[in-house]
Amino acid sequence: MSAADLVVAMPNWPSGQASANIIKAALEKSLEVKVDVQEMGTMIAFTGLDTGTVDVYPEVWQPNFDQLIQKFSTERGTVHLSSRNVAATQGLCVTQKTYDDFGIHDVADLKDPAKAKVFDTDGDGKGEMWIGARGWLSTDVERIRAKSYGYADTMTLLEMPEEVAMSAVDAAAATDKPIIFYCYSPHHVFELHQVKQLSEPPFDAAKWNIVLQADDPMWLSKSDAPVAWKPSSFSVAYATSLSKRLPQVAKLLDNIDFTADEVTAMSYAIEVERQDPAKYAEQWVASHEDRVKAWLQ
User: How far apart are the C-alpha atoms of 182 and 93, rounded to whole Å?
Assistant: First the structure.
């Protein structure tokens, strides 16, 4: 097969980097196809799946990507979502020490300027919190939630690469300094530190109104989400055309069945141990030969 016969879009979070490369290694080893892994943002990846320049996306999060799934999978039929998924959670977390010592237990606490000030590290009187990396759909949702709950007025919302944010969490945990951040699981932070997710009103579909930034310049003012995230999950997506073009590839992708523990281990290997995603993936596939064979059945 020719070079770049398949393109896997790689997200910029650790488990996504690992799983994109595991997909490459599994396909190259078992089906002898040439796979190119390219880092790209979610919107570009979905457009690529739609137009045929991208073949696979390893972690499609729901409800984060719901509008993209509606557009490209349900309406256009160009993107196929595997029926196997990994259960996930999303919310706001603090360290156990922050939870215990400062009485910050609920998202509503962040609207209190005195409590928000606990997280002030630059002396401007407002707290700071990481809401995700630039380009993540969840980052926009967290900005909407901050506006909806009212803590956008008391907290400075920071967008930065995940590894930078997690280094800040490590430092805060080591020095018993208070910190708050967007958190999702499966993720190694829950293994590495004692963290607590803040409570908030349960998800209510009637109150969850998200407009994508790509769809409307007034997205933030038109959106509202003063409730918890819906129970989340993620799964592999691929271009529907693969089923005809390379049916064995489509079959393998449909059968990928990572567990939450495995995804946590991926996250830990890439972000904490600083393993190279491609090398990690080769070792993973080499030590899970029977598993990869089962994906082809």
Answer: 6
